[in-house]
Write a structure and sequence with these properties.
Strand content: under 5%
Number of helices: 22
Largest sheet: 2 strands, antiparallel
Structural class: mainly alpha
Helix content: over 70%
Order of helices and strands: HHHHHHHHHHHHHHHHHHHHHHEE
Length: about 475
Amino acid sequence: MKKLLLAFIALAAITVNAQNGVSNPNRFGQGEDSIRCIQSISIMNTNVKNKEYKIAYDSWKVLFDEFPVARVDTYTNGIKILNEFIAKESDPQKKAEYLQELMSVYDQQIKYLDLLQAITKTKLSEGQILGRKVLDYIKYNKEASVEEVYAMLAKSVELEQGQSEYVITELFMKYSALKYKSDKNHGEQIIEDYLNASVYIVDVLDKYHDNIEKCLQEYKEEGDPKDSINAGKYSKMIDASRVAKSNIDAYFINSGAASCEDLDRIYAPAIEANKDNIEYLNKVISVMAMLKCTNQDAYLAASEYALAIAPTSKAAMGCGYRYFKRGEIDKAMELFDMAIEYESSVTNKSELCYKVADIYYNLNKYGKARSYAQKALSLNSKYGAPHIVIAQCYAATSNWSDDNTLNNCTYYLCIDRLERAKSVDPSIKREADKLIATYKKYTPSNEELFMKGYKVGEKVTIGGWINETTTIR
């Protein structure tokens, strides 16, 4: 009985120690415990800094187990240590044990998040931590269950509501598509996931655009090079986010979950019954617009009902397509302009301007097309598609002169635009390269240039409505 009592007292003492900073107001412990805590912090930080992770582990473990809210870097250092152990371990069993311990670091960080937030300026959310946990989990566990990973990603993006890192939003859509592959009952949910992921990735792009403007403004006012460097970093993040946005579309389209005909079959019968339900109508409009299902009856009807209830950018765009389909072009263009005006997201506004530019291009109204494409670029300089439309407009009007050599020089200008498109937007590289290969065939030959007295490197102005300068090469 005495031994049992002593064992209970020892267990109680361990439990008390494990609650330092949790139930005990002193996060470093008291008396000898506080000395041991401070010493462990010093040993851990010194050895992590020197990348002596094996030596750092024991002191880190003391902090993790007994002083869970003493320091925020207990968790960041724990992640570094265990990542290093996993990367260098060859024994699968040991690797699995380290991975399990790494997952517990993320779990405990979430458990004590409120207390940890109180002692740091750098704020993290549960959704962010969960997202990072998933990245490590799938990195080291090649047999990870699709169901398990999808559930974690779904929770992460739901918690973040558009503030997730772009890679998490992209992965969320990827695993939703993988889940649908093995579970066709996931059909309605994958449509919902695609709608959410598409909105969230635009939120991320808008955030990066805002950050660039803020950094450039601060650089202009204070001249701190760090602001200029940060603007460049956000610019690269926009490039990566645009690729993620394209991948999100591809995951959904390639899943085969819903073609335009499928969506029309799903939504059309319910439109009339929901003609006063703006939330339902907006959902239909959003999903079908994202998949470019703008000729389907469900999309057009939903847009008309939605515009009558509450004028929005998406509803105006849908009604514009309806009038366009009827051949009422002027009315359609009026509604497209309304859609641009109503849109608040800089990313979406830029894309709407591009869509209108593309419509004008297909109507052979090249000056209008260029005007809207330039407006799209003024809103988002990292957008490549408007450059492509402008290049196509120039190619379509290359016969502006009596001199055929000068006419063919127009294609240099087209290629200039396409090269610029690739440089600002990697997601359209394939399309741009295909057009470049086509337009190069029409540029003047060396013999033709020589006979006309033109030299490589010489500037030439393309006339007509284009009125831009390019370089002979």
